[in-house]
Structures are given as C-alpha cells and as structure tokens.
Amino acid sequence: MTDQLLVKDKDVVVPGETLATGMAFLPTKGTYRDGDRIVAGKIGLVSVEGKVIKLVPLADPYIPKVGDVVVGEVNDVMFSGWRLGLRGPYSAVMNVKDATSDFIGRGVDLTQYFALGDYVFCKIVNVTSQKLIDATMRGQGLRKLIGGRLIQVNPAKVPRIIGREGTMSSMIQQATKTEIVIGQNGVIWVNGEPGLETVAVNAIKMVEDNAHKSGLTQTIKKWLDEQVGGAR
Amino acid sequence: MTESLRQHIIQGLDKNIRLDGRKKDDYRKVWIEYNVSNSAEGSARVHCGPTDILAGVKMGIEKPYDDTPDRGNLMVNAELIPMSNPEFEVGPPSDWSIEVARITDRGIRESKALEQKTLCIKAGESVWSVMVDVIPVNDAGNLLDMAGLGALAALGVSKYPGKKENGKVDYEKHTDKKLQLACKPIPVTVWKIGKHLVVDPLTEEEKVAEARLTITTIEDGTIVALQKGGETPLTVEEIDEMVGMAIGVAKTLRALLE
User: Fold this and answer.
1) How close does chain B come to A118, measured CA to CA in Å?
2) For a disulfide at A115, which of A111, A138, B67, B198, Cβ 3.0-4.6 Å?
3) Minimum-distance CB partner of A194 among B5, B7, B17
4) Would you give the end-to-end CA distance of chain A in angstroms?
5) What angle do CA B204, B32, B190 make, to 5 degrees?
6) Which domain holds residue A202?
7) Mean pLDDT in chain B?
8) Does one domain contain both A153 and A227?
9) Residue where one domain finishes, among candidates A145, A179, A206
C-alpha cells in the first residue's frame, strides 16, 4: 500500500478513524497501528510533525503520573494508611509514614488524622505497571484541606485554569477572596464565603469552557469585576 | 460520611446560598420533551438542569388480579443504570431504585389519576395493563421528583395500541384513543439539611441530608401520598413548612405539563 496521510494537522478525529496508510508514518500517543494503517484511539486533535502522528485528546480521564500533585478524597481507612479517590479509574494509597511525622502506636484509630470524606492535597510518588499508586504528604504546600468542597474539571484544562505562572488562579482567588487548590487530576478544592465561592466556581467553569480562546484572562477579569461588584 | 462537606453546605444555607448559588426554595430550570421513543405508547424526557430522565409507557392485555376483576393494572419500575451515576450498580434493583419506583407508583395510584376502571376490557377476563419505566440518563440530584413528573408526562401523551382480531395487541398500529388521566399528581420532595429545608437538591446535598419528605399533591392542593425518608425525625412545624413548599413548587411544575 502507498504511504498516504489522510488527515491534516489540527483535524478533529474520532476513535477508529484511519489517519494514515503505509509504513512511512509513526503512531504515537493516542494512536495505534493496525496492519498498515494508523488509527485514532481517542477523540481529539491530530498533530502531524514530519512522520510522527500524535493525537491531543479533547477529553481524557486522569491517569496518575509520578510527581503529579493531586487533590484526593479519603475513600477508605485501611490497616496502615488511607485510600484516596482521585476521581479517575485508579485510586492512590497513602501510607501512615507518608502522611504524618507523629508517632502512631499499634492499633490507633487512624480517623483522627484523616476521616472518610476528608480532602487532601498530596503528591504521587510511585506508579507501578499494575497501576498501584502511592501518594505522600511530605513536600512543600502539601496538606489536609479543611472545609470547602471539591469541583471537577477536565484534567487537560488544568494548565489553563492555573494560567501562566499562576496568573489565572491567583486572579480568581484575589477577586473572590476564596482559597483555591488545583490538583493535576482536575479536582479543585474551593473554600470561601458562600456567595463569593459560587462566583469562583463559575469563573473556573468559564475558564474550562473557554480554554481554547485567546485573551481569556481579560474576559474573566471583566466578568469577575461585574460579579463581585454585584455581590457587594 | 462527609461531615466536612455537610458543615460547608450548612454554612452556605445559613446565608440562604446553596452550592450552585440558588436559594433554598429555588428549582433548577425544568423542561419536558414528549414522545421521544417510537416504540413506546407514550414517552417523555424530563430535564432539570443537568438531571435528565426518560420515562416510557408500554401497554399490554393481561388477566386482571382476582381481587380487582374490573380494574386495569399499573406497574411502575425504575431502572437506575450505572451510566447515570457512578454509584449505581448493575444487577438486582437497589433499595433506592425500589423506593423511587414505589413513590412514583403511589402518587399515581392513590390520586386515582389513572382511572383503572376505564382500562377494563372484560371484567374478570382481560384488562389493559399499563407499565411505566423510568430510566435516568444523568442523575445530578432530584431523581425522585423528576421520576414522578416524567411518569406523569409520559402517561399524559400515551395512546392505546391497536388490537388484532384474536384479541392480542397489535403494536404496529396506534389508535388515537388517549389514556385518560383524572388529575395531575406531582411529587415534590423537601430535604432537611441541618435546620434548613431545601427543594431540588444537588447530588452533594442529597448525600448530606438527614431527612426528606416526598409530598404528592393534586391540582386543588389535596395531599394524595407521603413518603418520609432519612434517619432523623421531623417536627410538626417542619412538616407544615414542607407541605407549604411542596404545594407551591407543584403548581409551577404542573404548569409545565401539556
């Protein structure tokens, strides 16, 4: 079969769509080879760089990576640690030794440190090939998140919500006087005054929905001024 | 289970602000699509914000029950599929699924909205049996009220199927004869969180609520069915307030029906 590229750069493709034929092109992330075809594995935007075909997914579940800083919710208290839900297909385990430097004797009730439903800001330290995941709370800024609530966004949009050097998130935090902690798993913890907290949540949703647009910081700034001005 | 979330929600409710910015007695936008299924005798799709529910009516000819030889049968079933909520599981119906179906059923049955005598073909031998299926497409809270509204909307647009010469049902044909409804029973559930009463809860609010009361009313405000849920008791004053809220909300919901 002849080597042929069937899509253009930045085309939107669906799973199963043939992107190229022949052996001249290389499948990478999000695509796979089926015989002499390269097929899309996800819905997303194609990016063609020379002979390399890549696919940037429009939406993706969160797959943990070592070094990710995530927001988790305590789902289970186990014999010597806690199971944390990451709102994705895999959950993480945080061992007692990674959670606190206190001395904990044998048989102590672990819920006095973290109880079911508590939120934690933690870091992924190990991911095995079987997707057994270890998390730790040792590190700068990692802590238990007290009060507040969680909202969920598409993990792919997290960089946009943080903004360049944190501009977007700090702007929302300052305007609404709300604490915001963003996990790379797309889970965001917000805590503030009830009315202003709702404004912050709506602002984050707005950034998520309009992540592809340019000049977003200015739009959000204007919108926040209107909203917060009205709430006062 | 989620005590910190409960405290956070109550903090907001103290100022009459809920997680999505609504007030305690605000309902999300509700809209109804009719006849979404070709194979059902009548169907409706009810949206309440992101909550999305399908209700369908199938009719068949069956033998009546021995104690009600001249009345048609009514069956309501709720199938809570895992697609609509990550906490729903496949397999035999859960307690919640049975409760949703029972509350929906009771509202229609006890209000006598469906005149079961009109469903009789020949007393003691054959009657129409009406089966209502409720399936959530997305459960983002307030499943109970929407199941009741969806079932009623679907019944309201249902038409009898045709009959073959041998007395069997001919599902290929549809007659123009509509199913008769005597009244419109609307269930409204009022949830108690802390000392606050709210309607149209979000999933988070449903999780932290201590008690709920489903109040089904008809046009003139008569209460036709009640169901209390949750572990905490309710005072007489609270029930009074809940009934007042439910009658008010039911009026606006009823106005949405065809």
Assistant:
1) 7
2) A111
3) B17
4) 68
5) 35
6) 149-231
7) 93
8) yes
9) A145
